[in-house]
TrEMBL record:
SUPFAM superfamilies: PLP-dependent transferases, Winged helix' DNA-binding domain. GO terms for molecular function: DNA binding; DNA-binding transcription factor activity; pyridoxal phosphate binding. In the C-terminal section; belongs to the class-I pyridoxal-phosphate-dependent aminotransferase family. This is DNA-binding transcriptional MocR family regulator.
């Protein structure tokens, strides 16, 4: 087939999809049927669909066929969009407290009146000043890292910066990192920046399939495991103490680094010990005050073995030099006077209230969620298309996230994630009612 004709067919199908003549969710002819209809070789028909898939216009699903994709906004669920005022954002969590603004005003006044302002105008040590790192270590001890100390604790500009710092400091391009089949999109981005190879591990109940991980370590040279043992995003699981010990045993046997993401761990009451407490010699613990206190602070923490600290500090220097001194001073003041712990407690209570509300409104809708989390995972049957539901909700001015940003394999499940921590309760209730209605329209 001449190249021009091949391109013409791709262009024609693409134009039909973009114009709506081929509607979202429509099943396209099989590769063989397309070849017969257009007088093509089968390999050329396959090439046509591959190019359309690369353009983001169709999706191929093993055993089901090729479908026209919904035109969701680029970066949906990964990038923070500036939605119009009439759009409800259930794709990102940025939970806040009613008195947050007044707390900041008070903190700024206190800093202006009694703080060492001159020092805040100078360069800071890359990982934070000694007394600030000691304050952060005490906060981490409150979260279960009882042996945390200033020497092993660094300030970063939020957990995302902590993950990226870890990816760049401790690994080489091409290194293999095992991750959950559904994982935090921000780590996918950090791995992309570090040119790491992510290999998905399937889930098995409340955690990764550790037999699959052990088998992978026998087949490949795996350098690390990225995991969220306490309040997994998006599935909300809390890994049991037994499974944590088994994961540590595998890591020690195969010389793996454990990257423990604890961004949402503060929400889970009575969770088992962090991996970093079980295996401090091989774990990087990543946490922040973004979800627990305020996203705008951009304050996070890394806790790691002493021998890794210089490389981590080197990447902090290369990326930000230091966490902004004013933000660090405010964060330390709130950790020292108990404000941070109080806000965490309030948000645990708030998250539970929101989950109860969601349970009442969503009713029989199948969902996966921790009772104190700020997100809900809604899986669908194979014949239900999540992108069609997400697009229908966008038409109702509600933004949600499909499974695509979370997926680390080509086998993307049909599901949506609702982030329920960012809007007031009245708006949340009304939005969840719409979500339930749209799901019902697409599943019955």
């Amino acid at each position: 087939m001449p190249e021009a004709r091949y391109k013409q067919l791709v262009d024609r199908l693409a134009a039909d999809i973009r114009a709506g003549r081929l509607r979202p969710g429509m099943r396209l002819p099989t590769h063989r049927d397309l070849a017969a209809r257009e007088g093509l070789a089968l390999v050329t028909a396959t090439r046509v669909y591959a190019e359309l898939q690369a353009m983001g216009l169709v999706s191929g699903e093993a055993g089901r066929g090729t479908f026209v994709k919904e035109a969701l906004p680029r970066g949906q669920g990964v990038d923070l969009h500036a939605w119009s005022a009439d759009t409800v954002d259930l794709s990102f969590n940025y939970p806040s407290s009613p008195d947050q603004s007044e707390l900041l005003r008070t903190a700024l006044r206190q800093l202006a009146a009694g703080g060492d302002l001159e020092s805040l105008l100078r360069y800071q040590p890359h990982g934070g000043r000694e007394h600030e790192r000691a304050t952060a270590a005490r906060q981490l001890a409150h979260r279960g890292l009882r042996e945390a100390c200033a020497e092993n604790t660094l300030f970063v500009s939020g957990a995302q910066h902590g993950l990226t710092t870890t990816a760049l400091a401790l690994f080489e391009p091409g290194d293999v990192v095992a991750v959950d089949a559904l994982t935090y999109p921000g780590f996918k981005l950090a791995a992309e920046v570090g040119r790491l190879e992510l290999v998905p591990i399937p889930a098995a109940g409340s955690g990764p399939d550790l037999d699959a991980l052990a088998a992978l370590c026998k087949r490949r040279k795996v350098r690390a495991v990225y995991t969220m043992p306490t309040l997994h995003n998006p599935l909300g699981w809390v890994m049991s103490a037994t499974r944590r010990r088994e994961l540590v045993a595998i890591a020690r046997r195969h010389g793996l680094i454990l990257i423990e993401d604890a961004a949402y761990a503060f929400l889970a009451d009575d969770a088992p010990q962090p991996l970093s407490a079980l295996a401090p010699e091989l774990t990087v613990y990543v946490s922040s005050l973004s979800k627990s206190v305020a996203t705008g602070l951009r304050i996070g923490f890394l806790h790691a073995p002493a021998e890794w600290i210089p490389e981590l500090e080197r990447v902090i220097r290369a990326t930000t030099w230091n966490t902004p001194a004013t933000m660090t001073a405010i964060a330390c003041a709130w950790m020292e006077d108990g404000t941070a712990n109080r806000l965490e407690k309030e948000k645990r209570h708030d998250a539970k209230n929101r989950q109860r509300l969601a349970g009442d409104v969503l009713g029989s809708v199948k969902r996966v969620a921790h009772p104190a989390s700020y997100f809900i995972w809604i899986p669908f049957e194979q014949e239900v298309r999540a992108d069609a539901i997400a697009m229908a909700l966008m038409r109702e001015r509600i933004s949600v996230t499909t499974a695509q940003p979370f997926s680390t394999s080509s086998n993307v499940p049909h599901a949506i994630r609702l982030a329920i921590g960012s809007v007031d309760l009245v708006t949340l209730k009304r939005s969840l009612e719409t979500v339930a209605s749209v799901i019902a329209e697409h599943t019955y």
